[in-house]
Structures are given as C-alpha cells and as structure tokens.
Write a structure and sequence with these properties.
The chain is an alpha+beta fold and 152 residues long. The chain is built from five helices and nine strands; from the N terminus they run βββααβαβαββββα.
Length: 152
C-alpha cells in the first residue's frame, strides 16, 4: 500500500481522448486522483458531475482533478460525452495502478475497486488518502483540505 509522504508511483495511462499521461505531466500542480468503480453508474456519475461543477475552484487552487477506473478509453470517452465532463479520466484496464494503490470490495457478488482519492502535491509526494469515499460532497471536503494544506 501507499504511504503518506512517499512519492506516488509513476504511471503511464491513456485518458478519455487516448492521450498518454504520466505522473510527471501533472508536476508543479497538485493532483487529486480519484479512483471510482465503474463508468456511468450512479455514484460515479455524481462524483464526475460534482468535480466538473467545481473544476474552476480546483483550477484556482492549482489542482488537477483526474478520475481513474479500470474502464477502457472508449468507455471513458462515452461517459465524458454523455455528462459533458470537463475533468480528465484515466483508463487502467490492466489495473496496473489500481493493484498498487487501491483495495477491492465485493458488491452483489462482484469485486470492485474501492472508491479512493489520492492527494498528491506538485512534487509527486502523496499528501493524503481518502478511503471508502462517499461521492456526495467529496469535492467540497477536498477543496477545504487543499486550502488548509496550502496555508502551511
């Protein structure tokens, strides 16, 4: 598992547009990397809509909000298009990052990656982990925490 104060593991994953992204692409900005179970499901839709609605506030604080799930690029593109998301979604169909960073839970007989958010500073250091996240209002909690962290 990952530990606060350590470098977040590097990755190379494609976003919803098929563009390859690495951790270093977010250098100099804070990264709120939120892991969600599945595209176009109720909680995941709430989360995507909430982060899209508050994107300007995150931008003002120098924070890039990025979603991550095991869904593929096409699924992410369809999800973004359907709900007009302005946030980036990374596809991890091979679960390379997910296996390193996130636990799994069972729901209705099926295993899902736990809804988790990682807050990474501009130097790539993990500053906070939010486990078993409630999708409703999570963006407000993140904004408040980031503002507090940036004061110090």
């Amino acid at each position: 598992m990952l530990n606060i104060g350590e470098k977040f593991p590097d990755f190379t994953l494609d976003n919803q547009d098929g563009k390859s992204r690495q951790l270093k692409d977010y250098a100099g900005k804070w990264l709120a990397l939120y892991v969600y179970p599945k595209d176009d499901t109720p909680g995941c839709t709430i989360q995507g809509k909430s982060f899209t609605a508050t994107k300007a506030e995150f931008d003002r604080l120098g924070v890039q909000v990025v979603g991550l799930s095991q869904d593929d690029v096409k699924s992410h593109k369809d999800f973004c298009t359907k709900y007009s998301f302005t946030i980036e979604l990374l596809a991890d169909p091979g679960a390379m990052v997910l296996q390193t960073a996130v636990g799994q839970s069972e729901y209705k007989g099926k295993m899902y990656w736990d809804r988790t958010t990682f807050l990474v500073d501009g130097k790539g250091v993990l500053r906070k982990i939010y486990s078993k996240v409630n999708p409703e209002g999570h963006e407000k909690l993140l904004l408040n925490d980031i503002q507090e962290m940036q004061k110090t």
